Amino acid sequence: MNEARGRRPATDADVALYERQGLGGAVGFGERPALLLVDFTNAFADPDRFGGGNVTEAIANTVPLLRAAREARLPIAFTRVVYAEDGSDAGVFTRKAPGLLALTDDSEGSQIVAALAPEPGEHVIRKTQPSAFFGTDLAAWLLGRGVDTLLVAGATTSGCVRASVVDAMSYNLRTIVVRDCVGDRALGPHEANLFDMEQKYADLAGVDEAIAAVLGRAAGAATPAAGP
Q: How many whole angstroms separate alpha carbon 11 and alpha carbon 163?
């Protein structure tokens, strides 16, 4: 991981407190992973709208992860924030961030960035709330594919990524945040939320580690069992 992105967001005393309370256990990779890309859309890639910080870097780092997931034939899901043209489905979230109302189904800002464009057979979820799970079919879609581990990339780390990670853990999925592949408009919230998610909700993995795990499981699954 880039050292500039690896600043400790907590003091030694904070870390010691978490350790003393028994937090920070590892969940590990399971046997049937899937990949979730949260809100990597044009608006969240644009510093003049909802982007900035290290979001562009996170998108670039996700390109090889997505390629590996496709090679390994993992279930892959994307999310987009999408509101009705007339705002009829708007709620409290848009009171906090009214600019989200511009993200309608056909708007340029709500489209997934070209570098990560979905392919046929990959699930694209439209959502109006931070979590990828809230009010969507994501949990059922994952369950139907026997998924036990969810690798998460996307934006923003402190917002929709975190909300999705908490819900993934709540569904008893082993949740892995690919730290090089999540980004936020401000690095302080990014680092603090990575620390907190690792302590309570998910494991963190670098992109190279995640790719190796994905491809390693795919290779293992493709290896014929030894004969008697």
A: 25
